[in-house]
């Protein structure tokens, strides 16, 4: 029999899907975007309601706030994520080249040893 997971440990194989399509656990930036979007929705809707006391329009503003904040956070986070992936790839290639060219005549850090020690 399989052992039961610890109480603080999430169950493996079970993921949370928002609306059945968006897997917020495995998609980078999805969780933060949805959380910030919901907070933006509450702030926008409540703020509009306190200013105008119009319920239906405040709900519309809340939905608009959710969409705008979610998309804004999503694009910002995905841009930073892509930039980080590019930097990681460049660092991996640099390390690979360092290992590959170390102690060879192609090593850029190696000082060239010329036979004639002065001006020619």
Describe this structure in words.
The protein has 120 residues and is mainly α. Helix content is 58%, strand content 3%. It is built from 2 helices and 2 strands. It has a two-stranded antiparallel sheet. Strand 1 (17-18) and strand 2 (22-23) form a beta hairpin. Helix 1 packs antiparallel against helix 2. The radius of gyration is 27 Å and the shape is elongated. The N and C termini lie far apart (81 Å).
Provide a quick synopsis of the model.
58% of the residues lie in helices and 3% in strands.
The residue-averaged pLDDT reads 81
Task: Note the gap between the termini.
Answer: 81 Å
Q: Biggest sheet, strands in spatial order?
A: 1-2
Oligomer: single chain
Q: Helical element count?
A: 2
Largest sheet: 2 strands, antiparallel
> How many beta-strand elements?
2
Based on secondary structure, the structural category is mainly alpha
General shape: elongated
């Amino acid at each position: 029999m399989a052992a039961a997971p610890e109480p603080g440990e999430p169950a493996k194989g079970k993921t949370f899907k928002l609306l059945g399509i968006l897997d917020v656990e495995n998609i980078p930036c999805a969780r933060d975007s949805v959380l910030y979007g919901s907070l933006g929705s509450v702030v926008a809707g409540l703020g509009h309601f306190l200013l105008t006391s119009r319920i239906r329009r405040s709900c519309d503003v809340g939905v608009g706030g959710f969409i705008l904040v979610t998309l804004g956070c999503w694009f910002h986070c995905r841009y930073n994520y892509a930039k980080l992936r590019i930097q990681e790839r460049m660092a991996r290639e640099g390390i690979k080249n360092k290992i590959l060219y170390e102690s060879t005549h192609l090593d850029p850090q190696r000082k060239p040893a010329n036979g004639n020690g002065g001006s020619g």
